[in-house]
Specification:
The protein has 322 residues and is an alpha+beta fold. The chain has eleven helices and six strands. Helices cover 63% and strands 11% of the residues.
Length: 322
C-alpha cells in the first residue's frame, strides 16, 4: 500500500473520529436537548393545524404540499408522495448549501417527524369532515374560511417557534429562509412571497374562488408570522435618570447579568447633576428591576420603549455577563 493511500486512510479515520467526538459532545449539552424539545413541540403544533384544519378543508394554501397536489394533477403518472419527497429533498440540499448545516440538520428532523405526528393524531381522532361542517337537511355545509383561519394561526405559531431557534417546518419555510438570508426581506414577507408564487399554480386545477382563498390564507400566514416573530424578539429599553445609580448598576450587572450604559447629565429644570442609565431587558427582567427599585425605596425617573430587534453582544450567551 502506498504512503498516499495510508495517509488518506489516516486522514479519513481522524476526520470520522473528530466528527464522532463532536456529535457526542453535542448530545451532552443542555442546548441540544432544549432545542430538541422545542422542535418537537413546534412540529406537533404544526401537525395539529394540518390534521384538524388543512386536510379536511382540502384547500391549497401556499405550501410544498399544495404545489405537489397541483403537479400531481398535471402529471398523473407521478404520485403526490413522490413529488413531495423530491421537492423536499431538493430544498433540504439547498438549505445545507445556502443556509448552513445547523438549519439543514434541524429541518431534516422536523421534516421527518411531521408525517408520523399526523398519523398519530389520525389514530387518536379519526375525522371524516371539517370540525366546522354543519349538517342542514341532510347536506354537509363546510366553512373553509374558519378552517383557513385556524390553520394559518396555528401554523404561524409553529413557524415562529422554530424560526426562533434557527429551524423550520421544512418545505416552504426553507424557501422563505433562503429569500430572507439573501434579500434581507423579513421572514413573514418571504413566506408570503414564496406562498403566493405556489398558490398561483393552483389556477391550473382549481376554481378561482378556491385559489383566492389560498392566496388570502398565505398573506395572513405571513402577516401573523411577522407578528409572532416580532413578539418573540421584542425587548424593553429602559432609561433611568437618578443620583443613586450605583445600586441600580450593581443590581443590573450582578443580578440580571446585563450590560448597562452610563451617561452623565444635568437636569434642564433643576440644574442638578445626575446619571442617565440605559439598559436593554426582557419583560421578566424589567419586572425584577421594578421590584428591586420598590424594595430599595428608590424613586428614579424611568421611561421605557419597545425594541423589536437586538444585535451584538446582548444576544450572544457566551459573551453575556456570567
Amino acid at each position: 500500500m502506498s504512503n498516499s493511500l495510508i495517509n488518506r486512510d489516516l486522514f479519513t479515520a481522524e476526520r470520522m473520529k473528530s466528527t464522532l467526538e463532536m456529535v457526542m459532545h453535542l448530545l451532552t449539552t443542555k442546548k441540544f436537548w432544549v432545542e430538541l424539545i422545542i422542535m418537537t413541540v413546534g412540529m406537533f403544533v404544526a401537525a395539529l393545524g394540518v390534521y384538524f384544519f388543512l386536510i379536511p378543508s382540502k384547500l391549497i394554501v401556499g405550501s410544498i404540499t399544495g404545489l405537489s397536489l397541483v403537479l400531481a394533477k398535471l402529471l398523473p403518472f407521478i404520485s403526490v408522495g413522490t413529488i413531495i419527497f423530491v421537492i423536499n429533498a431538493v430544498l433540504l440540499v439547498l438549505s445545507f448549501l445556502l443556509i448552513g448545516n445547523e438549519f439543514g440538520a434541524k429541518t431534516v428532523y422536523t421534516a421527518l417527524i411531521l408525517g408520523p405526528m399526523i398519523d398519530f393524531l389520525g389514530s387518536l381522532f379519526p375525522m371524516e369532515e371539517s370540525i366546522f361542517a354543519v349538517h342542514v337537511a341532510g347536506q354537509v355545509i363546510a366553512n373553509p374560511w374558519f378552517d383557513l383561519l385556524c390553520f394559518v394561526i396555528i401554523l404561524s405559531a409553529s413557524q415562529s417557534i422554530l424560526f426562533s431557534i434557527n429551524a423550520s417546518t421544512g418545505g416552504l419555510d426553507i424557501l422563505a429562509k433562503i429569500i430572507n438570508k439573501y434579500t434581507s426581506i423579513n421572514l413573514g414577507t418571504a413566506v408570503s412571497v414564496a406562498g403566493w408564487l405556489i398558490c398561483c399554480t393552483a389556477f391550473a386545477i382549481n376554481d378561482v374562488n378556491l385559489v383566492v382563498i389560498g392566496l388570502i390564507g398565505t398573506w395572513l400566514n405571513g402577516m401573523i408570522l411577522s407578528h409572532f416573530m416580532t413578539s418573540l424578539s421584542q425587548k424593553t429599553r429602559v432609561v433611568i435618570t437618578t443620583q443613586h445609580y450605583e445600586k441600580i448598576r450593581d443590581f443590573v450587572v450582578e443580578e440580571l447579568k446585563r450590560g448597562i450604559t452610563l451617561t452623565e447629565m444635568v437636569g434642564g429644570y433643576s440644574h442638578e447633576k445626575g446619571m442617565r442609565l440605559e439598559i436593554i431587558l426582557t419583560r421578566d427582567e424589567f419586572s425584577k428591576l421594578l421590584n428591586f427599585l420598590n424594595k430599595e425605596d428608590l424613586h428614579p425617573f424611568i421611561s421605557i420603549d419597545t425594541v423589536s430587534e437586538v444585535y451584538g453582544i446582548w444576544n450572544k450567551k457566551t459573551k453575556k455577563f456570567l
